[in-house]
């Protein structure tokens, strides 16, 4: 049964959890800023200021404002406010508004390295939390401030995130999603595979296809459970989303995205005000019966949805044996029809539920300032849901209006609220699909799933300080190692989340295109040739970082990667895979060279300088000696701290989080002791 204590505990868990997520995001930004976006970074901050904030570009360009000092100060302010929220010292709405505004400012200054959907999601969640959920009239949430009305915009945000993530996979008409084979590629082709990704890649196709089907069920029909007025059904929907996110965390490195998604599940578990009743044996039995009925309803609904979404298709093996496999029945046209017919109703239903919760809140505070505050709160929540819903109307060209709001009005609202309302949709199309996939039938009666993960490998000629070549390999080229991305075939996938190494993520995207469309990568090459210390810190090359050696020339090769395989019938049926011997499990990857991605360049290359100048990037290094634009001892200390923690972002985050937990525990214990002394 839901009680005021349960509601307030869940509410505090969400507000503190969001504080922890902001803390992780700010720490990750602070550690990476010098290499990515500082004056001497890959995308120099003075150029980013000109693009994002042209009104203050002049004082930055003239040196009246130190760009790096300003950004670092703002980032540290964000860290401090996040720690205040996470440790439970205060959860006032203004604090959430501040951290959201600060993070939005930093994202704008992050250039191409901060264009990911989770950055946008964090901004949207922070804004809705500040406006609808966090208390405005007190520093902390209390039983009087249990935000039942404020839960609805956050529930709807989670619905939008998951529903769009599922529906766009079908609308993209990617064969891997249609054939339910996406997981046969995903674990090896995702940006930064986790330590368990190799093992998941070895699972038999039956389990992998069942996993894809389950993902579709959780991301499309089960999202309805998140926005119904019945607590039992909402909790079932929330736990389904949490299980999915835990499985994603176990096999991939998606920074704070999965944690944020799970945090958004908490408002779905908060009960309505009218559900708080006096506990008795009869009400206990009634609660159990209601839970059973709600569970049965969920199971029946999902069973009907599965029947409509999937069908069984027969395959014929080479030996003449018939086999059956599950396939997706839904098409792009079906998705458009579903979106057109159901989304307006879903939005209106959510607005109705929010309005009913608001009416209950207003009835509790009929007169005076509390009544006006409750009425205003309800109106704000209704408005936020309409704003949050705007991107959903892009899913189908046939949706023209929402109730009395016409299409022209919807477009105007969408345009003016684009900062705090966005569309989502990860993995629309699966990358790294080999050319021979979907052709022929293997021994299991299935087309082979051939993985061809594109990966950029940087190679360099490394010399000693006296200029002598430090290599015995042919042509003197050595592969440059990074901390987290795949490189050598014997490098095991590593755990880095909740930190996101932004540069290595961008390299994954760069491998999907041409170097002409990734000027930042050429800028990176220019910086390491010039010996910029912050940029060289991105490499996992201790001798280069310690300045014992330097890079003379750099080139880039494009490879195709796949995980090695265990010796199974499924593995043997896939052409070109490396099957491990029973006695040798040292190789995690297999790879083959495809083509040259970037020709050999040195620091005096004129075409390099012309390319960077044409792309609007500064050339060479602006912060020699490791100083922050030469502003003094404080930057030397900051540089020293980054050198310590840049290779240990997970440790850095754990220390900060542990500090917040200890502060929260100490503060809570002190409050308990104070109340006990007062009672005595």
From TrEMBL:
Domain of life: Eukaryota
Similarity remark: Belongs to the lipase maturation factor family.
Domain Lipase maturation factor 1/2 N-terminal, residue spans: 114-269
Annotated InterPro entries: LMF (IPR009613), LMF1/2_C (IPR057433), LMF1/2_N (IPR057434)
Domain Lipase maturation factor 1/2 C-terminal stretches: 442-599
Bilayer topology: Multi-pass membrane protein
Name assigned to this protein: Lipase maturation factor 2
GO biological process, one term: protein maturation
GO cellular component: endoplasmic reticulum membrane
Keywords assigned by UniProt, alphabetized: Endoplasmic reticulum, Glycoprotein, Membrane, Transmembrane, Transmembrane helix
Pfam families associated with the record: LMF1, LMF1_C
Spans traversing the lipid bilayer: 20-42, 63-87, 93-111, 206-231, 243-270, 342-362, 374-393
PANTHER family (alphabetical): LIPASE MATURATION FACTOR, LIPASE MATURATION FACTOR 2
Subcellular location, principal: endoplasmic reticulum
Subcellular location: Endoplasmic reticulum membrane
